[in-house]
Amino acid sequence: MGIIKKTVHFSTVQVLLPRRMTSMTETWLCLRSVFISQYFCHMIDCQTHRLVSYTNITQGAKEHEEEESAAASRRKTPKSPNMGTLMGVYLPCLQNIFGVILFLRLTWIVGMAGIMQSLLIVLMCCSCTMLTAISMSAIATNGVVPAGGAYFMISRSLGPEFGGAVGLCFYLGTTFASAMYILGAIEIFLKYLVPQAAIFHATDTLGSDSAMLNNMRVYGSICLSLMAVVVFVGVKYVNKLASLFLACVIISIVSIYVGAFKSMTHPPEFTICMLGNRTLVRDRFDVCAKTVMKGNTTVPSQLWEMFCLPGNMSSPQCDDYFIQNNVTEIQGIPGLGSGIIRENMWSDYQQKGEISEKAGLQSVDARGATENFGMYVSADIATSFTLLVGIFFPSATGIMAGSNRSGDLRDAQKSIPVGTILAITTTSFVYFSSVVLFGSCIEGVVLRDKFGDAVQKNLVVGTLSWPSPWVIVIGSFFSTVGAGLQSLTGAPRLLQAIAKDNIIPFLRVFGHGKNNGEPTWALLLTGLIAELGILIASLDMVAPILSMFFLMCYLFVNLACAVQTLLRTPSWRPRFKYYHWALSFLGMSMCLALMFISSWYYAIVAMVIAGMIYKYIEYQGAEKEWGDGIRGLSLSAARYALLRLEVGPPHTKNWRPQLLVLLKLDEDLHVKYPRLLTFASQLKAGKGLTIVGSVVRGNFLDSYGEMQAAEQAIKNMMEIERVKGFCQIVVASKVREGIVHLIQSCGLGGMKHNTVMMGWPYGWRQSEDPRAWKTFINTVRCTTAAHLALMVPKNVSFYPSNHERFTDGNIDVWWIVHDGGMLMLLPFLLKLHKVWRKCKMRIFTVAQMDDNSIQMKKDLAMFLYQLRIEAEVEVVEMHDSDISAYTYERTLMMEQRSQMLRQMRLSSAEREREVCFFVCVRVKCILEILGKLSLDTGVKNKTFNAQLVKDRHSLVLVEAPPEKVHMTWTREKCEAEKRNRTKTRFSPRSRLLVDSRDQSNVRRMHTAVKLNEVIVNRSHDARLVLLNMPGPPRDTDGDENYMEFLEVLTEGLERVLLVRGGGREVITIYS
Fold it and tell me: Which parts of the chain span the membrane according to its record (predicted)?
């Protein structure tokens, strides 16, 4: 309790003193008594203020009236948190849990479901909230929970996406709760307090429901407007009325218990009029009899006139059912000792319009007139167990009231668990005992009478109360009004807390309000949403909607506790120790089950709403790092997945380019060629791994800040180009060394790159510094040594942006050598993107003059058909001399390509022998060629002649059917198969490996020119041209000639993608 300074003027006290008290002792005693009286007055005032301010409203906000007063301008000493468990948690939870359902619907639920199923409904709902309270206590005692309550707990435990989604669901639930309470208050007002206030009246008995709904809409809108004005003017008025509302709830509940126990000896007099076994609406006639005595004459009663036409009683024209059945009266409240509990033990669900009947009464089954249907008590809606679960669950909500006020508690770590669990225990006991008492004291037909038509329009639960039904009617009215005010006050503050976190951009406006912090705009939105609930006008239809949103919130509270417990994060240290992840999972499962039990379609709608909000925050919302459990869960899942990926390399069917994009930065640390990232995003389309790397020259100790700036610049560019991936910056003294480090070290475990993408060194001919193009060639060598695929987009500045669309055109693939299928796979992946989707794919293959071009075209078309790739096939014939620069690669790889196509025409047995034979022969021939090259030191140009020989690791085995041909062969099996084939089918064709190492540079340039002429002639209008990229020379003396060769080969083409395979198959015909 804060220190309150009181100033008492001596002159004031002197006036109050008697004149004869002149001594100093007497003066001191009088002063002391005044101070003591003022101290006790201050204590009583503080306790009263504490009693009336335990709502779920955030404390500490200055009110409008306080701002206008002069006293508000003076600086006040802030009060320290001083609320205990009783005033801060227990009583607020009681007030929020007890509500309209207890007074208006619990008797009806017992009548429809019976005592046993009613107890099951209460058990399910209360168990769900108890398990949620345990999880909530663990989260709430793991730190301070400020304004926002459940939203704050979930968002800080599961991240902003879950927090925003569930927070908005909790907000919608609280908003619809205010509508439900208002509808309950209006129902009490129109049905039991002032029925004459109805504006709309039914023209016939069948139209009474629609008239009542219209009255509910009108009065509900008026009541909502008045409550919104009260909340807008000042929250302190709601605080001051809180004690009155709670007192009404407690007095009403006590009167029910007193009346139930009093009914054992003196049951209240509420008789029910029965026609046969049907229950009659009691307020439409005066005497429960067919005839009455007036003097000595028997005359028809009002009941007779309702069922019969005016006329002679001896030959009446009456309703058949009325004539054949007797009118009797039974006791509506038999009392606790009457044994009525046996009849109310089991369920009696009804369809809409079904008349309420009492089993055991004699009745003659006869068809009555339709116009007399309004005389009977009937069901207004079809009932079932699932419907009653959804209607009752809102009466178990409100357990967050204590956690919402953790900042005002003296010891929140102790008060929240104790107060919340104690409040749930108390309310659960009240619900369980009320179910048993209602079933033991009240007649079944009265219990099934929702609006008390059989007991002269009295509230059913009020007929059991003592001393008068008006105690329950007035008490329930004020309690529902108070609960509606609290919901209408708490919902805008919850929305304001979400808006101030700035995780949902379109809600930012609702974070603002009046100068004193009152959420004006949020209150306006809350009123509009609550008006939607008011327009529904049916308490039984609004309650399941409310249940969905609260169950969604409770589900994620349990999930948050379970995730935090299983992850065992260091910051998870709740003071509340009586929790377990299994209990949280059980509570989560019960919440999910209750959602679908009560209303499966409402459950789906609520989940869709939450999912849409989640995806919106994930896509558009602001990034927040709150140390949430989902991030820890993601880390654990990533670790598990990485360990699984370490088992072995991916299968050919799962292969996709995992890119390492090497970017070059200018002097201002800006990306020099951003279209590399654009092309990477089009190729990846958000799938697989993308690592964007760059090198900063310098010393790590001196260039750390520059490295961070470069990383941020690349991340910004990745966001602009919508590249989903990672950024890796390396500081090295030489760019060449940094690129080698990136190629070696990027990735983690099984998530490593298998393809390198880098730009072409433009202007290398004019550059006086050869380091740029020498770094390029060194990178090509490094990727070859690391068995990585390589892609070099040339003229990348002409590549399309993500906003362009190609409506026509071709993607041309020049398949000169077999590279494992990279040239065929890349166009297919590009066509998945919207930029390239409408482009057609063409494959050009180069054949020698003596090859069977027609058969090769058929074989290639069949191969593409089996690959499920749509492409146009063309075969280009060229002289052997025109492609002599490709001699080594053509000999090793073009022969393999032809052999692969020829394999498709062999039988299974022949294919098995062919695979083994050609593998062994080619491996031997490669080794022989490499041996000759290493010994031939007298040839001047041996370096360049060997430059186009693909490395031995690039050889690819042709896949055979897995059930008969194995991809892996032992050395003994290959040698045996080789000897067998040498005797039978060895032909000169297998010795096509010819070493043409004596060609000059002029001859090689001639080859490049001839190939370029053919490519430009066929693909000059193509949107993109894909070419095999020859391997670099082993000796650096031929680097410049290699660059010239590539320049001449690609001259005149607008967009060229040079591709070099990584030495393994990346595409397969098998599923």
Answer: 89-108, 120-145, 165-190, 218-235, 241-260, 381-401, 421-447, 521-539, 545-566, 578-595
Q: Is 792 helix (H, G, I), strand (E, B) or coil?
A: strand
Q: How high does pLDDT run on average in the chain?
A: 78
Contact (Cβ atoms closer than 8 angstroms) between residue 684 and residue 791? no
3-state secondary structure 102-128: HHHCHHHHHHHHHHHHHHHHHHHHHHH
pLDDT of residue 644: 78
Q: Per mean pLDDT, which range of 10-24, 594-608, 678-692 is the poorest?
A: 10-24
Residue of 1029, 900, 902, 1030 lying closest to 957 (CA atoms): 900
422 CB contacts (<8 Å, ≥6 apart)?
A: 85, 90
Spatial distance between the Cα atoms of 830 and 172, rounded to a whole number of angstroms: 44
Amino acid at 990: S
Mean pLDDT along residues 546-569 = 89
Q: Are 579 and 565 in contact (CB under 8 A)?
A: yes
The runs of H, that is alpha helices, within 442-538 are: 444-447, 460-464, 469-500, 520-536
Q: Report pTM.
A: 0.69
The closest of 447, 401, 440, 453 to 424, measured between CA atoms, is 401
Assess whether pLDDT exceeds 60 at residue 970: no
Contact 252, 479 (CB under 8 A): yes
- Tell me which DSSP letter residue 751 carries: B
Instruction: Please tell me the least confidently modeled range out of 8-12, 505-509, 586-590, 627-631.
Output: 8-12
CA–CA separation, 880 vs 1007, rounded Å? 10
Q: Is the peptide bond before 467 cis (omega within 30 degrees of 0)?
A: yes
Distance of CA 410 to the CA centre of its chain: 35
- Grouping H, G, I as helix, E, B as strand and the rest as coil, residue 1051 is coil
Token pair for 910: 């022949």
Amino acid identity of residue 570, one-letter, is P
Cβ atoms within 10 A of the Cβ of 76, count?
8
Residue recorded with tokens 């948050």: 560
Backbone angles phi, psi at 253, to 5 degrees: -65, -40
pLDDT of residue 299 exceeding 90 = no
Predicted confidence (pLDDT) per residue in 856-890, tens digit = 888 888 888 888 888 888 888 776 655 554 433 43
Closest CA to 352 of 171, 547, 138, 112: 112
Rounded CA separation 420/405 (Å): 12
d(CA 405, CA 218): 35
Residue 827 contacts residue 867 (beta carbons within 8 Å): no
Task: Name the helix (H) or strand (E) containing 812.
Answer: strand 810-815
**Between 413 and 428, whose confidence is greater?**
428
Which is nearest to 385 in space by CA: 111, 593, 117? 117
pLDDT digits (tens, 9 = 90+) for 1001-1045: 566 666 678 888 888 888 888 999 998 888 887 777 778 888 888
CB 782 within 8 A of CB 743: yes
- CA 403, 408, 409, 413 dihedral sign is positive
The encoded tokens of residue 940 equal: 């001047």
Query: Which residue type, as a one-letter code, is found at position 441?
Result: C
Distance CA 855, CA 109 (A): 82
Asked if the model's pLDDT at residue 22 lies above 60, the reply is no
Rounded distance, CA 88 to CA 1056, Å? Answer: 72
What is the number of residues in the chain?
1071
User: Mean of the pLDDT values across residues 783-799?
Assistant: 90
First CA to last CA distance, the chain: 76
Residue whose structure tokens are 């009617």: 473
Q: How far apart are CA 706 and CA 728, in angstroms?
A: 13
Distance CA(52)–CA(91), nearest Å, equals 11
Give the pair of three-digit tokens for residue 42. 């201050």
Cα dihedral 321/327/328/329 (nearest 10): 110
Instruction: Give SS3 for 904.
Output: coil
The 3-state DSSP class for residue 298 equals: strand
**Cα separation of 696 and 436, whole Å?**
78
Q: Strand 872-878 to strand 278-279: parallel, antiparallel, or no bridges (unpaired)?
A: unpaired
